[in-house]
Amino acid sequence: MAESSVTFFLEKLSNLVIQGASLFGEVEGQVKLLRNELRWMRLFLKDADSKCIYDERIKLWVEQIREVGHDAEDVIDLFLFTLDHQRQQRLKNLKFLKFLPTCVGFADKLPFIHELDSKVKEINLMIEKIMANRSKYGLEALVTSNSSKADHGVSQQERRTANVEETDVVEIKGGMEAVKGMLIKGDQMRREVVSIVGMGGLGKTTLAKKVYNHSDVKQHFECHAWVYVSQEFKPRELLLNIINSVMSLSTEEKKAMREMGEAELGGKLHGYLNDKKYLVVMDDVWSIDAWSSLRFHLSDSMNGSKVLMTTRNKEIAAQANPHEVVGHTESLFYELRLMDDGESWELFLKKTFGVTNFTLVSLSEPMEELGRKIVEKCKGLPLAIVVLAGLLSTKEKTQASWEKVLASVDWHLNQGGPESCLGILALSYNDLPYYLKSCFLYCGIFPEDSEISANKLIPLWVAEGFIQRRGKETLKDIGEDYLNELIHRSMVQVAEKKVNGSVKSCRIHDLLRDLAISEARDARLFEVQENIDFASPRSIRRLSIHQHLLKNNISQHLHNSFLRSLIFFSNPIERKDWRSIQEHVKLLGVLDLGRMEDNYTLPKGIGELIHLKFLCIEVYDRVKLPSSIDRLTNLQNLDLYFSDSYIPHTIWKLKQLRHLNCIRGEISSPSKFSKCMINGHLGVELLTNLQTLALAPGSWLDGDGLGKLTQLRKLDLRGWLTPYLRKGFFDSIAELTALRTLVLSDYKYGKKKTVLNRVGLVWQKSVVEERTLMPGLMSFSRHSFLYKVCLYGKLDKLPEQTEFYPPNLLRLRLGRCKLKDDPMLILRKLPTLRILELTWKSYVGNKVVCPFGGFVQLESLELLGLDELEELIVEEGALPNLRSLQVSLCPNMKKLPHGLLQLKRLEKFSLRKGHKDLIDEILQTEGEEWDRIRLITSINK
Predict the structure, then answer these.
(1) Is the pLDDT of residue 431 over 80?
(2) What is the rounded distance in angstroms from the CA atom of residue 448 to the CA atom of residue 513?
(3) What is Dmax (Cα atoms) for the chain?
(4) 493-532 per-position pLDDT tens digit
(5) Residue 785 in contact with residue 500, Cβ under 8 Å?
(6) pLDDT band at residue 21, thresholds of 50, 70 and 90?
(7) Which of 435, 465, 654, 439 has the alpha carbon at shortest distance from 14?
(8) Is 39 helix (H, G, I), strand (E, B) or coil?
(9) Buried b (16+ CB within 10 A) or exposed e, 590-606
(10) Do residues 892 and 871 lie in contact, with contact meaning Cβ atoms separated by under 8 Å?
């Protein structure tokens, strides 16, 4: 922990030392001395960090190093902030006198230099005393540098992809059939609540998820929803999540729903579910109030609908079915038990050796004896077994190695007392390599039970300085390795994967999150709102806010000059609090303002935060960035999501930007006056570090600047592309050979009012298509990393040569192409394609044929909004691996796909707003094979 913070500051200090006298003047020598001392401290910290739990002397020594490291970072960053502030004052005074220098001269810096000199000398003296204590108090014998862990983690050749899905965590014998039986019985019964009850770590969520995803359960209920409740639930958010799961809503309908109050949302949900047999899962319920807030919005139509609840409290399960107390309440909940010795041993072997058949594992008698002793310490708790087995899976399978783990387990259990599971969890945490500890703890900033996007987590790790450089690899790649290693060690669980197998999102178990928050507090890494003691506030460096309860108390933390990160998961700070940030919180590196419902203008004072690396704002309407944004020269990540946003053209000055994710962001055009004030040309070509670029098309696309962004991995352009679809544009894309994802959407929109079913008056975008064709795209044969392509716009025809397409294309989505020829005859040849989506007039013919031997790898096919389509034919031998077929809003398709019965691997057939004849054919055709099709079919009329 302390090692990672020192390493981060060392890298920053080393970069500054390169600037030498031009920055620090006569203090340069003291700054170099500070850098050298920190290098020595870092070497000892690698071992000391993991050993401080065993010796209070080491713990104190590490804490002192961490404190002095923080002090040094604050002194240097405050010096840089003061210089920048001085420069800005000089610019204001001299902005019309261009012949005068705008930089801060040495004479201007002199007062700051003297202050810096005094503080750095004081820090160097403190470091000298701390290092002397190492010998004085006998720490040298305890802190050695014989760590077997590599300094930079797994090498590129040793990368492991995450292979631990949440449903693989435990094997629960008998539980599946018991819970499934409770859910599918009684089609004429009242709505009932079935509960899975047990202590934390027993696998309640895992069992619920296995039952929820079981084919028998999916086929029994017409619609399904899963909501995470947790201790901090909000009834309105729960209602929105259920509505989004059971109702097929357009973007505009979803926006309208978000503007409704709780009562109106509840009425919409009740009306929709009134004639449907549904299953709603409420995961991690801590209070009966959660159920009380939803029960009257979930209709009770005497059709066998069910609610499945997971909870640690048996009393909540009983209260959820008060009308059944006298009768058979016990039949409505399943109480998870601890694993017996045999089940525990089986799970331990599977997880330790990574096998599905534990009988294949052969151990010597001494090793089996050691293993069974380790398993015995877990007391049948699945989570403890999984975490401990994850630890052992990374170690040598030797008697000596397992003996060391067994000895450590005993020590932690003796220290932990009744919290023995936390002792085991702490053991795995302490065994993490130093470079993973901060990354794991940081997962605790996210709200309980939340699904954590890897695209957000990894850039946060980078901005916080947790990712350490490793040769020429990008920090994002290294971050993905870190995440996969945490998953491999069972410290983090996979929630969802991308089509290319990488992690899309993850989550952390409640107990592991509790551990992360506790350890992070001790290490002064971060605080979450539930931990803060307002009676005796501490100097907080990172603050995560989950609820509104801090609104009245947050101002005192905005006077904390040491605050480095401020992350909101509730509504953000009020405008009046920006003054506190501008005056006191000068060193922020991470600012996530969370979600906002209304238009938002970022204050001009944001430009004062020159150390900012990560800025995130999610606004449902419009956000405007001030011109002062160009002062954020350290900014790496700017994320505005789908907000309609106004971005100054001076954004191109921010050369450190790696991720510019502003899908509806419009870049302003420079005025004549601003052109006179700017030295040199400003354009997208200056952002050579960009890996993600998502913007609305504009004049910034003119020229060949886009093609110079050779590190770009994701390009997402949505809007009026037509004026820029020239040869130079496609030549630029041809140069972007590092691309993984490409989205090109050519449309023009205005606003008009329209009445939507069940929603009412909303604003809807009206697409205005031009006759200009999307020109013949260049060959993608050199784009070997490109696996996802989405093209929206008019095309004459698809290229017939397979060499045109990316060689490793996995997912293709087409929309508004108005193809006249059947695209399947060409796309069938793509050898790696797994997901194909033909949407919104991408094809205007009346027949689609999947020919013999075509689409050998395709797993999912979606046909959406093809108004003219009448028939889908699947020839024999086509689509042999298809698992999901979705047909939506194809009003003229009156017959089931010809050849549907031969799709033996089909697991899901979804039909939305189909023709009556098509629905009748599904429901009425007799035969055993048709019975199978009906079982996997979901119909939304």
Answers:
(1) no
(2) 8
(3) 92
(4) 889 999 999 999 999 887 788 889 988 888 888 888 765 6
(5) no
(6) very low
(7) 465
(8) helix
(9) bbbbbebeeebebeeeb
(10) no
Tell me which DSSP letter residue 680 carries.
S
379 three-state secondary structure: coil
Query: Which long-range contacts does 564-568 make (Cβ < 8 Å, 24+ apart)?
Result: 564/588, 564/589, 564/590, 565/464, 565/526, 565/541, 565/589, 565/590, 565/591, 566/542, 566/590, 566/591, 566/592, 567/445, 567/542, 567/543, 567/591, 567/592, 567/594, 568/592, 568/593, 568/594
Q: Is 647 helix (H, G, I), strand (E, B) or coil?
A: strand
Say if strands 452-453 and 503-507 run parallel, antiparallel, or are unpaired.
antiparallel
Closest CA to 447 of 594, 557, 265: 594
Element of type H or E holding 793: none
Q: How far apart are CA 295 and CA 292, in angstroms?
A: 5
d(CA 230, CA 847): 49
Q: Which residues contact 221 (CB under 8 A, 6 or more apart)?
A: 277, 278, 279, 305, 306
Q: What is the Cα 666 distance to its own chain's centre?
A: 25
- Say if residue 288 is exposed, middle or buried (CB neighbours under 10 Å; 0-12, 13-18, 19+): middle
Structure tokens at 51: 């050993």
pLDDT at 46: 63
| Tokens linked to 77 | 């960053």
Percent above pLDDT 70 for the chain:
78
Q: How many whole angstroms separate alpha carbon 239 and alpha carbon 269?
A: 8
Q: Which two tokens stand for residue 464?
A: 């916080």
Dihedral sign, CA of 548, 552, 558, 560?
negative
Nearest to 442 by CA among 584, 541, 585: 541
φ, ψ dihedrals at 386, nearest 5°: -65, -45
Confidence of residue 314 (pLDDT cuts 50, 70, 90): confident
Short-list 778, 2, 114, 787, CA closest to 434? 2
Q: The dihedral of CA 324, 327, 329, 331: what is its sign?
A: negative
56-62: long-range contacts, CB 8 A cutoff, minimum separation 24: 57/137, 57/138, 57/139, 57/142, 58/139, 58/142, 58/143, 61/130, 61/133, 61/134, 61/137, 61/139, 62/1, 62/2
**What distance in Å separates the CA atoms of residue 826 and residue 846, rounded to the nearest whole number?**
17
Cβ contact 288:318 at 8 Å: no
d(CA 534, CA 551): 13
CB neighbour list of residue 498: distance below 8 Å, 6 or more residues apart: 504
Residue 576 has pLDDT above 80, yes or no: no
Torsion over CA: 136, 137, 141, 145 (sign): negative
Task: Work out the number of other CB atoms within 10 angstroms of the CB of residue 584.
Answer: 16
Yes or no: say if 695 and 665 are a contact pair by the CB < 8 Å rule. yes
- Contact partners, residue 486, CB within 8 Å, separation at least 6: 436, 439, 440, 492
Rounded to 5 degrees, what angle do the CA atoms 588, 590, 594 make? 120
- What residues have CB less than 8 Å from 749, skipping those under 6 apart? 719, 765, 766, 767, 768
In sequence order, what DSSP letters do the residues of 849-880 get, joined into one string?
EE-TT--SS--EEEEES-TT--EEEE-TTS-T
